[in-house]
């Protein structure tokens, strides 16, 4: 309604009186209805809530968000051994078994991966050796689907006597090269890739990291975050339960033969992958080459095409982000874009496809993992050059920025002088060390 009203007053002068009356009547009906949520995803409401609430069963989680009939011939081909590498044979000489390839055309990036991390992953039990796989939230609500499945038992591929390990699994992602923050459907469901022309074969992926590992939402086992569920992670990620030997529920009175449809353990991220180079760039110590006062480095791409960066912003400042977890401001190259930042608190990466415009809650179902935001519709990192920001937005709509509230990001003259001094000192330190 806000968008159409603005257009009506600014652009509708060429309409005849009859059409103007029709537009006014439409606006009156829309305002009277006052819809709480105009979000329309490409999955059913039931499937959306099931995914957002972290409901697990004997199918791949959030499989409704996976692209149907995905054409794998468009994606780069990985070497044959990428699908057969065993955890026992993975080491630094073969990149720990990781395989990742990316190609681009004029609109999209195409990513192929075997979903094996490019670092060592120890044997894993989410709750402990000899215990099960359900969180307290699932047990309390009676939604535990894996009763009798014990970590360290004979659970099929990926299940070893002292814990679980990854098993290679194909990953395909088609992601826009450039995200459009002025789209009328913003904010949007973090799991839905279709409206932007994207594709993926892993339903719960909200993005993909620079090593090809899927970046998934803040929860995994029930409607509580990873931290609230008490799930321990390796470099921000873990493997799914080993269901290769677990039969599905009866179909027409007959048990489905193993392996179960959800398959063997697959590694994925939920929280910040702090063992990756973009995080080490700031954490290893200044004397060892760390640059903690630079903008965070690229760690991956969200399915909407916007980049995801590590913790810090320009000058080492904390990013001022919206409810989705993104904001406008300079990135590591100095260019101004809308982008996301990884963080140690929920939503860890993103809660919705932004900008949030104060409406992140409308993209959630059954739970809410939205960031507190900056108190405005649009969040801009303090000190961002407004002229450059408007030039960036003018690629799509030069009037978009003025339709919403925005945080106080414009620096006063005194602040500008301090920033210039800080920048000069930082540059000097970089050259010295």
Structural topology:
Layout: H1 2-11, H2 17-33, H3 45-52, E1 100-104, E2 108-113, H4 136-140, E3 159-160, E4 163-164, E5 171-176, E6 188-189, E7 199-200, E8 205-209, E9 214-216, H5 226-229, E10 237-239, E11 267-269, H6 277-283, E12 298-302, E13 307-309, E14 326-330, E15 336-341, E16 352-353, H7 386-393, H8 413-432
Parallel strand pairs: 13-15
Antiparallel strand pairs: 1-2, 2-5, 3-4, 5-7, 6-16, 8-9, 8-12, 10-11, 12-13, 14-15
Helix percent reads: 10-25%
What does the radius of gyration come to?
A: 23 Å
Distance between the termini: 54 Å
Q: What percent strand? A: 5-15%
Shape: globular
Tally of alpha and pi helices: 8
Give the topology string: H per helix, E per strand.
HHHEEHEEEEEEEHEEHEEEEEHH
Count of β-strands = 16
Structural class: alpha+beta
Instruction: List the strand order in the largest sheet.
Output: 9-8-12-13-15-14
Low-confidence stretches: 1-12, 30-37
Folded structure, characterized:
The protein has helices at residues 2-11, 17-33, 45-52, 136-140, 226-229, 277-283, 386-393, 413-432, and strands at residues 100-104, 108-113, 159-160, 163-164, 171-176, 188-189, 199-200, 205-209, 214-216, 237-239, 267-269, 298-302, 307-309, 326-330, 336-341, 352-353. It is an alpha+beta fold. A hairpin with a 5-residue loop joins β14 and β15. The chain is globular. The model is unreliable at 1-12 and 30-37 (pLDDT under 50).
């Amino acid at each position: 309604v806000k968008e159409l009203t603005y257009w009506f007053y600014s652009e509708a002068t060429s309409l005849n009186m009859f059409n103007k009356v029709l537009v006014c009547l439409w606006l009156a009906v829309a305002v009277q209805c006052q819809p709480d949520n105009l979000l329309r995803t490409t999955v059913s409401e039931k499937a959306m809530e099931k995914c957002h609430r972290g409901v697990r069963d004997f199918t791949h989680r959030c499989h409704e968000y996976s692209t149907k009939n995905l054409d794998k011939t468009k994606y780069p081909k990985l070497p044959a051994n990428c699908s057969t590498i065993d955890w026992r044979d993975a080491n630094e000489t073969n990149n720990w078994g990781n395989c990742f390839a990316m190609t681009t055309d004029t609109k999209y990036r195409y990513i192929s991966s075997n979903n094996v991390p490019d670092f060592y992953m120890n044997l894993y039990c989410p709750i402990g050796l000899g215990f099960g796989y359900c969180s307290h939230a699932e047990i309390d609500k009676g939604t535990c689907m894996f009763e009798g499945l014990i970590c360290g038992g004979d659970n099929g591929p990926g299940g070893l006597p002292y814990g679980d390990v990854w098993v290679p699994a194909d990953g395909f992602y088609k992601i826009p090269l450039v995200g459009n923050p002025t789209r009328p459907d913003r904010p949007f469901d973090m799991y839905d890739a279709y409206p932007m022309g994207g594709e993926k074969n892993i339903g719960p992926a909200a993005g993909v990291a620079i090593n090809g590992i899927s970046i998934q939402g803040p929860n995994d086992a029930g409607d509580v975050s990873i931290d609230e569920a008490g799930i321990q992670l390796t470099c921000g990620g873990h493997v799914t339960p080993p269901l290769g030997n677990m039969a599905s529920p009866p179909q027409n009175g007959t048990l489905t033969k193993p392996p179960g449809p959800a398959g063997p353990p697959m590694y994925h991220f939920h929280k910040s992958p702090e063992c990756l180079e973009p995080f080490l760039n700031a954490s290893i110590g200044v004397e060892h080459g760390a640059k903690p006062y630079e903008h965070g480095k690229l760690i991956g791409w969200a399915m909407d095409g916007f980049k995801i960066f590590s913790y810090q912003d320009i000058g080492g400042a904390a990013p001022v982000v919206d409810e989705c977890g993104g904001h406008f401001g300079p990135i590591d190259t100095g260019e101004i874009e809308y982008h996301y930042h990884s963080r140690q608190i929920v939503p860890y990466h993103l809660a919705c496809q932004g900008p949030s415009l104060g409406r992140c809650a409308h993209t959630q179902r059954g739970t809410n993992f939205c960031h507190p935001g900056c108190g405005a519709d649009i969040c801009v990192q303090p000190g961002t050059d407004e002229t450059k920001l408007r030039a960036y937005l003018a690629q799509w709509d030069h009037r978009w920025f003025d339709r919403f509230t925005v945080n106080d990001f414009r620096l006063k003259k005194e602040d500008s002088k301090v920033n210039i001094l800080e920048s000069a000192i930082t540059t000097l330190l970089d050259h010295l060390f």
